[in-house]
Amino acid sequence: MIAQQLLNGLFLGAVYALFAVGYTLVFGVLDILNLAHAAIFTAAAFAAFSLAAAGVPLPLAFLGAAVLAGIMGILLDRVAFAPLRARNAGTLVPLISSIGVAIIIGAILRGIYGVDERHFTVGGLDTAPVIRLGPLTFTTVELTIFLAAIVLMLVLSWILRATTLGRRIRAVAEDRVAAALLGVDLERTIAATFFIASSLGGAAGVLTGLEYNSVTLDMGGPIELKGLAVIILGGMGSVTGAVIGGFILGAVETLAIAYGLSAWRDAVLFGVMFLLLVARPTGLFGKRALRAA
Amino acid sequence: MNRNTVPALALLAIAALVAPSGAASKGPAAGKTVHVGVIADVTGGAGVYGTPQKNAYELANEDVKSGKIDAGGANLVFDVQDSATDPAQAVNLMQKFTTDGQTPIVLGPTLSGEAFRAFPIAKAANFPVMGTSTTAEGVTAIGPTVFRDSLAESQVIPTTVKRTHDKWHYKTAAIIYGDDNAFTKTDGDVFARELKAAGIDVVDTETFHIKDTDFQAALTRIESKHPDVIAIGALFPEATKIIQQAGKLGIKAHMMGGNGLNSPEMYSVAGPAAQGTVVGAAWFSGAIYPSNVDFVKHYTAKYGKGPDQFAAQSYAAAQIVAFLVARGATTKDEMTAGLKNVRVIQTVLGPIGFDPNRDVKSSPVILSIVKDGFAYFH
């Protein structure tokens, strides 16, 4: 049973990690919490649903929705963050404007799709072939989702480490003014960051929608809070931390239930987080304390 | 109200049992306008439940006009207002309807949590209200003018346990329920009580939260205890995922649940794993009561998808109000008296009445999920 439970936790953790990576990337670069990340996660799931319903093959629908989410990210930055950045509004005001954008995205989605849960008619969990490997049971969809999440996180890690864009993003994250003085185009780098972060968040939304064959207006709610927990646990701004944090969260959540504590799941989850943060206040991979306001 | 009106209304109610329904008649309220307040969560988190309710009342408005619902020639209108899944807004709307001087009865709100906030206002104003989906314990105990036409889980589950046990002769059971919602919590409690009373060993109890999507950890644990049957206390979105994921994990135990599983889309969403799952419910879409056959047909034609139980219970409330209006009830006191004295009304839920606690009197239906729908469980 424990082997199956660890596998359950691994699948869960992969999507948490993918969501949190985008969340933490924006924080790392701009020092702001983008609370519209979950709204983009939801919007991308709906976009993929629409594309799939229009007959687009699922892998293409997935890519299309992720790109769309990336474009939404750039627009989000232009509307909610760039004007405030130009006026040096600090880090608290953008938090509020991102909540505003999240509400607007939610209202638009409600207007288009109504309140009903939507389902992918093809490729959902119910029709996917089941693989039984010794004590383990999983579907090809779950395996694909897991691999897709891992591949996307590897691609991000490669971009950040080995490309010019990655170096620019890291430079802006380190010191925005110094980076600008050294000739980095600030606004373009920030736009690229938002594109990458939002397309990863969008990808997580599509994968979540596929995994449970369910797309709903409020699907972003639970993962928003868990994503926040993951990036604090991993260390604010740390991409590696977000990945590890996502898997820890998935594992703790699953094991709490495996050991008969389903009623205490969230208490166990946040209890473990609390203890880890007492031991390491900056998070697992946090390099610096949160700047005093 | 005139002292003689109450027995008169009662007599009329009994007379209606024998009278054929259908064509619009000319009643004592003919020509009068009766404005019924409806509070429903059309938007917000409970929008999935409030929207079919709104649809049902809009259909009822058309059916009153066309005479399919007999309101005795009165101009009966259901005015649906959105409480947006916000108890404060439900309270505001209840205040508006109880004081506007033209509304004799309010139907709704959608959720029990809202009812506990809004119904005390009606009680203070001595104003009749009827819940159509507020099934938590204690709702009708709020006051002597609080009614409901929805069968509570505590009325449905005992029959479900008895009927499944008679057929399957199971000895062990596991329960999985949402512990953060009044409805699903009641499910969990009542299943535990009834299973134990039937001498069944409950080998595992798992809980989840509303909006959870992954139940594989809990189901893997349940499977390790090898129960003969799994009792599910969930609303539709969670129930479909529990059933689907149980199927994926290869769990062979029988499954059963309550009203939350009674949705026309159960099979299409949960997939083949749902086949054979038993659902105890207040309403069956395939029931052959004449008004129900019409209701399902017209609702489907108008909205492009079949009605669910929320829609059916709201439409039944519209039928009940129309029944009272057709017999002359146009004020709040006449509505209250009418509801108290009514014996049996033919609705889409079948023949129903109210018990002395103002709860609905009707029989649950025990259904089994089959390919593309439901069938009676035998």
Helix-strand blueprint:
The complex is a heterodimer of chains A (about 290) and B (about 375).
Chain A: H1 2-30, H2 37-53, H3 58-86, H4 92-113, E1 130-133, E2 136-139, H5 140-162, H6 164-174, H7 176-181, H8 186-211, H9 220-234, H10 239-258, H11 265-279
Antiparallel strand pairs in A: 1-2
Helix pairs in contact in A: 1-5, 1-8, 1-9, 1-10, 2-3, 2-4, 2-8, 2-9, 3-4, 3-8, 5-6, 5-8, 6-8, 9-10, 10-11
Chain B: H1 5-18, E1 33-40, H2 47-66, E2 75-82, H3 87-99, E3 106-107, H4 112-124, E4 129-131, E5 146-148, H5 153-168, E6 172-178, H6 182-197, E7 201-208, H7 216-224, E8 229-233, H8 236-248, E9 254-257, H9 266-270, E10 278-281, H10 290-303, H11 309-326, H12 332-341, E11 345-347, E12 350-354, E13 360-361, E14 365-370, E15 373-376
Parallel strand pairs in B: 1-2, 1-3, 3-4, 4-5, 6-7, 6-8, 8-9, 9-10
Antiparallel strand pairs in B: 10-14, 11-12, 12-13, 14-15
From the spread of the alpha carbons, the general shape of chain B counts as elongated
Helix content of chain A: over 70%
The total count of helices of chain A amounts to 11
What is the strand content of chain B?
15-25%
Give the strand tally of chain A: 2
What is the strand tally of chain B?
Answer: 15
In N-to-C order, the SSE pattern of chain A is HHHHEEHHHHHHH
What are the segments of chain A in which pLDDT stays under 50 over at least 5 consecutive residues? 289-293
Structural category of chain A is: mainly alpha
CATH fold annotation of the largest domain in chain B: Rossmann fold
Shape designation of chain A: globular
Domain module count of chain B: 2
